[in-house]
Amino acid sequence: MGMNAVIAETTHIAEQYIKAFGLDTRFWRTFRHGDNPAGLRLERVVIIRPHWRVTFEQYAAFEDRCEAWLSRVSHTGQLTIL
Questions:
Q1: Which residues of 51-78 are buried (b: 16+ CB within 10 A; e: fewer)?
Q2: Coil, helix or strand at residue 28
Q3: pTM of this prediction?
Q4: Which of these, 19, 28, 52, 64, is most buried using a 10 Å CB contact count?
Q5: What 3-state DSSP class applies to 56?
Q6: What is the DSSP letter of 39?
Q7: Each residue's pLDDT tens digit, 47-77
Q8: Pairing mode, if any, of strands 73-81 and 42-47?
Q9: How far apart are CA 7 and CA 69, in angstroms?
């Protein structure tokens, strides 16, 4: 099994999702939206959308970060945005 990631505004939020869904931490890592680990290739990526009031500019920045994470997904992998 390849490496997977849950990505949220904070790693604490991402960790809460991993615990809530009983994901195996040997295969799931947490990242912040703004992280961009060079050279990382992931099989499954789950990005948690900001759930608070954000400005248009903040949401546009979030969408740009999603594009950056998409480039980290392997050609057989999956990206999900919640």
A1: eeeeeeeeeeebeebbeebeebbeeeee
A2: strand
A3: 0.89
A4: 28
A5: helix
A6: T
A7: 999 877 888 888 888 998 898 899 899 999 9
A8: parallel
A9: 9
